[in-house]
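Researcher: I'm comparing several assemblies side by side, and this is the next one on my list. It has 225 residues spread over two chains. Same procedure as the others: predict the full complex and return the structure.
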Amino acid sequence: QKEVEQNSGPLSVPEGAIASLNCTYSDRGSQSFFWYRQYSGKSPELIMFIYSNGDKEDGRFTAQLNKASQYVSLLIRDSQPSDSATYLCAVSMDSSYKLIFGSGTRLLVRP
Amino acid sequence: KAGVTQTPRYLIKTRGQQVTLSCSPISGHRSVSWYQQTPGQGLQFLFEYFSETQRNKGNFPGRFSGRQFSNSRSEMNVSTLELGDSALYLCASSHTGSSNEKLFFGSGTQLSVL
């Protein structure tokens, strides 16, 4: 079982729709959770982070964390073609000094 | 504030050679970590340095090594290159490397081994 799992996609949504990206993790000791966006040929860029159960909103993005279910999600409202990218879920544990990444979900937003 | 700077941007080497990649973190950041990204394996952790000390190492062979200097700049070295080492090597920095800190990535070094 992979430590961090994501559906590789592609997830295709029309412009203006809500895109829902999901991630599960295997280690219950995971403490911090991050979503990175990576455009083709570019490096990962942090877009959201969440540490506590519940929802965290930032503009069009909402991160959701459920530690009991070991589940993290990212919602993108009013999706734009410029949101088309690969979204990487990453988790870390205290004193590990590393991030464990999922393989990423490719999102396509159709104009 | 300048971001994470990695040099060179592209490298082409042949099997058996060695290579050294360089990373300058964001000013004030003392933790530097390295990741390998390939289409098949995704992003995999190589190692992390803080105050010139390696605090964690990923599951890579001993051919992969690194170091950090007193100014927090870091280098990684790959000896006896293999075809499978072709990848994007990403460096990331943060203030202290603690689990709740955000990592900022450089543009990466694209290594091709022929």
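Model: For your comparison table: The two ends of chain A are 36 Å apart (CA to CA).
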